[in-house]
Amino acid sequence: VYFRGNTVVWDMFRAHTSDDIKKLAKSSQVTLAVIPGGLTSVLQPLDVCLNKPFKDRVRKKWHEWMSSGQPRLTKVGNLMKPDIELIAKWVRDAWEEIPEGMVQRAFKKCGISNAMDGREDSALYEDSSDD
């Protein structure tokens, strides 16, 4: 692990809280923040602010591909899946379209990267659906 002095925020999935992971985090100077069960939708930046716009962008790319005439049919008439390379490109492009400010606001809204002096506490209550 090459990260030093970072924080990883994740849910209580068993693999995230194993002794091996805790040891690795400690040796790498990574702080682990585990979101208690039932609070992922409140405290996980991806769930709170980022998953929907990201998935909307990927879905848009799928629809554009579908309407472009590129999809082909199998011998029995079923739609062929897009190549994995194309799907990976959609994912990469969709993520690159997410504004950096949206990512920053997501972490602030979840109270993860707010200023310690309290001056950014109002971010917890701001509506992030405008993005």
Automatic annotation (TrEMBL):
What one GO molecular function would you report for this record? Answer: nucleic acid binding
Q: Name one Pfam family in it.
A: DDE_1
Q: InterPro entries of this UniProt entry?
A: DDE_SF_endonuclease_dom
Domain DDE-1 as annotated: residue spans:
9-107
Report the superkingdom from the record: Eukaryota
* Name of this chain's protein: Pogo transposable element with KRAB domain
Originating organism: Pelobates cultripes
